[in-house]
Write a structure and sequence with these properties.
heterodimer, A: 334 residues, alpha+beta, Rossmann fold, OB fold (Dihydrolipoamide Acetyltransferase, E2P), six-stranded mixed beta sheet, 9 helices, 27% helix, B: 277 residues, mainly alpha, MetI-like fold, 2 domains, two-stranded antiparallel sheet, 14 helices, 2 strands, 74% helix, disordered C terminus
Amino acid sequence: MGKITLKQVTKDFGTVKVIKPTDLEIEDGEFVVFVGPSGCGKSTLLRLIAGLEDVSSGQIMIDGKDATNIPPAKRGLAMVFQSYALYPHMSVRKNIAFPMKMAGMPQAEQDKRIAEAARVLNLTDYLDRRPGQLSGGQRQRVAIGRAIVREPEAFLFDEPLSNLDAALRVGMRLEISELHKRLKTTMIYVTHDQVEAMTMADKIVVLHAGVIEQTGSPLELYRHPRNKFVAGFIGSPKMNFIEGKEAEKHGAHTIGIRPEHIEIGTAGGSWTGTVGVSEHLGSDTFFHVNVNGFKEPLTVRADGEVDFKYGDKVSLTPHLDNLHRFDKEGLRLA
Amino acid sequence: MARAVSNKTKAFNTAVAGTLAFLMFFPILWVIILAFKTEEDAIRAPLDVLFNSGWTMENFSTVQARSDYFKHFSNSMIISIGSTLLGLVIAIPAAWAMAFVPAKRTKDVLMWMLSTKMMPPVGVLVPIYLIFRDTGLLDSRIGLTAVLMLINLPIIIWMLYTYFREIPGEILEASRMDGASLREEVLYVLTPMAIPGMASTVLLNIILAWNEAFWTLNLTAAQAAPLTAFIASYSSPEGLFYAKLSAASLMAIAPILIMGWFSQKQLVRGLTFGAVK
């Protein structure tokens, strides 16, 4: 069981309030992703749950028990760090065995679990190597192996993929999702990459300046962002924001429309403009269009390969059902 | 891109460097040569010393007969190893605390400790001498061990501090998450990772303590005198006995030179204060 509850948790470093009073419920077996720009407090929040930092006030409950003052070693959580944090002087086998050794598990059981973890993570041939002799992806697998063997209440991942190259990142992302489906253990995952958040999470927690901006499933956040910050942070490429007369027409201070909710054509749309830079990805094409009367260029997505040249006159049709309206404070208007 | 250096420049640079190295090594070489000459030969013109005189071992037996080498040798061993080990006992917890749980003033404390090394030792000779006299520590190995430990303590703490700082905090946090108690964290994770650093700290401090002359000359007489005092006893006002002085010097520096030779790699790491991996 791994239900984690935060009640009015805060964290100050000196006079800086890194985490403002925060409530959060993480259900058993859930895959929760903390996402936000750097410095938003997401790693601090994870470290508070881990016990590596002490809360300034508030309460952390793990499985209904107050864990606020329990040291990290006793919380029953396993953590995977961004830098992998393997023990460089120990072989892969000893690294994976370390938490079991600390728990005083019988040797036979240790060996069984090491073999099983190595098989799942494709590390069987590397068990007697030192971490220094492994590639980045293998090191991260060892770190995951070290976390799974002790069967923790929950896994904590602190930006585990940011040191890997792009191709490996996609592969490891799938492996971690796969692991979650199989183990059904609570996982809390910190990342600044909203694509990781969208693809992996059951529930996303968007943090900004020490405050939870919104909590919800990836599609909830995508469809109904509570405010402008979440709207801009979730989705790639970013949502377009339009202020001024066009927004007033819709009774809002700002309107937002995602690149995939605008159609591009030669005539017949409600907005006209000229094509700027275009990005051809094969499956999609993104155009940056300077619309007449708008301050900022809009990003527009087209399916497949669409050929508009730099400087071409185009006409845009927004899908009005997918238009987001925000008030002056950036809050969503119903 | 490698910088292009012509072969001529290379040869010239090598020659200059070689000459300078030889000049610096020359006094030691001369001591080694004179140690194997008779007193009469030792004061002849340098070329005669080199090419026109025989070799002898007699200086060593004379020196050993006049003063007990092995007593001074064991004093040196006890004082240098003892002060280093005693220093470690104090420095490891201190450096650990400063590296892993730094406070606001940790940097200032470190600088202040280092600043004590900038003070001329003679400035505190009189008070220390008086304290030693009144507590009966003069000419005792315990007293000397304590003084050498204290004067080298800032260096031991600095070196260990820089080595500990190289150990990533996340690894220690990982061990905490893995269920290690503080004792297990220190025993299984921190110490194995810090051993290379500790080894070079120990080596460097043994050498520093072995070569320390100011305090050993001023605070010892016959009983606790280490090898530095033993060498000094051969420069007497009645005249210099070059050959015997050289033999004594060679006997005093040989052990530490041999140790230094075998632990060069560790020492280089030690002297760069952990700056190079």
